[in-house]
Each structure stands twice: as structure tokens, then as C-alpha cells.
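Worked problem 6 (solution included).
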Amino acid sequence: MRIKSILLTGAFAVMCLFGHAQEQRDLKKEVKVRTNFKPKIKKAKRIGEMPSVLDTVTFKKRFDYSIRSKSLDVSFKPGSIKAAKMTSERFKKIQGHSFDLAAGNYASLFADYRYNSLQSKKTDFGAHLQHYSSNGKLELENGTEVKPDWKEFLAEIYGNHYLDDAKLSSRIFFKHKSFNYYGSPLSDGVKNIFDYNNQRFNHLGLNTTYETLNKNAKDLNYKLGVEFEYFTDKYNVSEVDMGVNGSAEVKVGEGLWSLESSLNFIQTNNLVYWNSELKDHDVRSSLWMVNPSYNLTLGNFNMRLGVKAQAILGNDSEFNLYPDVKFNLVLVDRVLDMFAGLDGNLDLNTIRSISEANPFVHSGLDVENTSTNYRVYGGFKSKISAKSSALFSMEYSNIDKQYFFSMANIAVSPQGELPSQTNYSNKYAVVYNDLYKISFTGELDLQLNKQLNLYALAKYTHYSLDGLEEPWHMPNFEMEARASYRFTDQWQFNARLIFVGERSVMTNENIAQLDAIADFGLGAEYKWNDILSLYANMNNIFDAETYLWHGYPSQGINGMIGLKLIF
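Solution. The predicted structure is:
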């Protein structure tokens, strides 16, 4: 029995081990199930949807109304409107004549007459006559009383005649100036070619210009002109200047092409050379100029690109080529502009141009030509308001043979004796020098309101000379200020200040210093009616002793009272 139990137990154990092994072997098999069955989930049926209710009962809004009218009495009654009538306005008469007459101390007399033609569609012309003289006495530094006896006269006729697309302009004039060499007296024992103590200039001129006025910029516009001028002094020194000039411009694409040209023939007779005591020397020269350029505007930027060729043929032959470049940029429209440029110029100096710069030169002075090799400039222009503006500019120049006035009778230039030096002690000659100069200029014009206007201009210049110690008679600082105030429709007041800084001068081998000039003046005008006005002006109110040219004092306090007629 025991043996049977053991056998059953062993058989059961064997079966359990076999079953466990078979289970492990079956788990390692891969079972694949193939069937066409695809499970789907049916849509769930929603429960609880709100039922729609259709109301078959309708209501219509209905109401009754009525207006009970009642008249309202109004007291206003419109008046009748009169029919309009055309009435002619009184024509404001345009006056063609004006006449000024004034007198003052120093036996001063001023007269000015102008006439302009009226209401002409084709032609306008005018005439102008002016006289100014002063004959009072002045006192020199040594106490001597002298008489300047200064007189000026101008007569001119001018006019324009308008064609369909052109204009013809002409002007003829005559200028006369006479004065005394009232300054430093002549030195005793000085040998002069001829002695004299007064001078007289006569200047006659005529010019005519024909100019086209085509409105279309693509059409050629041109200008042609001729001129003639004759200048002479009291001692038979004379000068003739005859010339022709012209210009043309046409727009091609976005740019404007232009060409300017001129040719002048100048003959001067009876010049004086002190080193050879030659008094009857004649000079003939021709000045030719041609200046092509291209102008272009691109939005707020415009420029000019050109070149200028100038040649002097004759006694002083010379040829120079100069740039002609300008730029302008609008930084703020109608408010601020920036400008810059580069150019140069050849000046043919004549006895007329020199006498206009300084009338106290000796008769027959011959001056060499001046060349501005290049001039670089730039600055800003500002439009403060409709009637107010400001400007600031800077300029740098290189100049050959710039002349300076000197009264030194043995003045010497770096190259040796001057060909035009003077032995006079009361008349000026010139001395030359090459130089560089830089200048700064500021200008302000303010129209504060309808009554008050202010204007100021200041300029500072620094000279760098190649030989001379100082730029004779040339100031470093200059200023002008003006104010105008309209008190009423009848009364107007004005004030003016002119300031010229100290200047170095050469006289008889000595360097002198001219004091600064500060000329303050006041004026007033009273408009009596549309025809008559009365005015008074006063200059050098502080009675300062001033010298514009060494040896020649200017007038002290001086004034004029006058009237003006318009008829």
C-alpha cells in the first residue's frame, strides 16, 4: 500500500513537470488570427432633444392717431431785397514822377528825379537824374582846414520793349565825379611828373540786349548783347571798353545745358610809370570768357557742373581755367537749405575799376590783373517766416596778385620796385601780394510784425599773406545793422549802425593803424499825403573822427532834411 502511494505521488509529480514544460514551450509560439470581422461602434441615440413648438396664433400691432392743427402767429416779416447794381470802382492813379530834394550841413545838397512810363503793354522806359555835392570844410590832424568839394552827377535813360516771345532792353548813362585831394599835403622837395590837387572822372556807357522768352524749357532760349563804355579823367587818361556777350540754354531730358561767353576789347591811354618817368604809355588788352555748364534738379537737390575758361590777350597775356560747381540741398522744405560751391575768376583791372574802389589814386595808375585761382564756399539758408530769413556762409580763397592801396612813395614789393609806385604823399598807388583768405559771414533779416523790421550783417576775414606784413586798408571785421519801425501810417523811423574794424596802412615807409569806424545814424519820415513826404537823416551822431583812407578824414556829425514828391 505504501509502495502504491509512492508510485502515485511520483506519477503526479512527473505529470506536473511535463505540463509546466509544455506551457513554457507554448508561450514562445507566434499566434496569428485571420478574420474579416471589423468592429464598429454604433452611434449613440441622443435623448432629451428639445421639441420645436410652432405657434399658430399671430398678433398685429394696431393704433389710431390724429393731429389737431393750430395756427401760430409770427411777428417777423421779411423785407424786400433790392436788385444788385454794378458800380465802377475809382481807378487808383499810378504816378510816374518822383522828386527828392534835401540839404544839410557841410553845404550838402541832394536832388533826385525819376520818371517811369505808365500803362503800356509793349514798352516801358524811364529816366533818372541825380546830383549830390558837399563843399564844407574839414580839419586835418595838423590843424589845417581843407575843402573836399565833392560832387557827383548821374543821368540815365533805360527801357524795355516786349515782342511776342522776346525782349529788347537798352540803357544809356553818363556819370560825373569831381573832388579835391584834400588829404595829407604834398611833401616838399619831392619830384613829381606833374602836380595837381583835384580830379574829375567822366564815364559814358551804352548797352543793348536781345533776350528770348520761350515758356517751354525745351525750346532754345538765348541772349545777345553789345556794350560800349568810355572813361576819362581830368589829365587826359582815357579808357575805351567795347564788348559783345551772349548766353544760351536748352533743356535736354532732365537737365538744362547752358553756355555763356563774352569778348571785351579794352584800350587805356596815358598811363604813368614812375621808374621810367613815362607818362604817355598805352595798353591794349582783350578779355575772352566762355563758360559751359550743366544744371540738374533731382527732387530737393540741384546742382551745376561747369568750367570757365578766361584768356587775356595783349600787353598782359594770360590764360586760366576755373571750375564752376554749385550744389543746393533742401534739408527742410521751405525752411532750411544747404549750399556749397567751387569756382574762380580772372579780373582784368582797369583805371575805372580801381578809381571806383579808391578815388584818391594818382592819375594814370596801371594795375596788374588779379586771379582768384579757386574759391570754396558753403553755408546754410533758413526761411524763418514768410518775411524773415537767415544766412550763414564760409569762404576760402587762393588769390594771385591781389592789389592793396599804399601811400608809401618808396613802397617795395617782394619782387622789387613797383612799376606803378608813386612819389606823391597825398595820392595812392598799389602793392601786390599773393594770399589765402578765409571769411565767415552771417546775415539776419527779421520782420517781427507789420511795424518792425530788423537787419544785421557781420563778416570776419583772416588774411594769410605771402610777403606783405599786413593787408593794407583791409579790415578783419565789418558789421552793419539796421532797424525800421512804422509807428503809424504817416510816421516811420529808422536807425543804422556801420562798424569797420581797425586797419593797418603803409605810408612813407611807416606802418600806421587806422582806428575802427562806428557810424551811428537815425532817420524819420512823415507822409503828409499820397503826394508829399518829409524826411530827416542824421549820420555819425557821436561825431567820431573817422578815416576810411589814411590821410583823408571823413565828415563829423552830418545830417540832411528833405522832401519827396510823387506825382
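Discussion: The mean pLDDT is 85.
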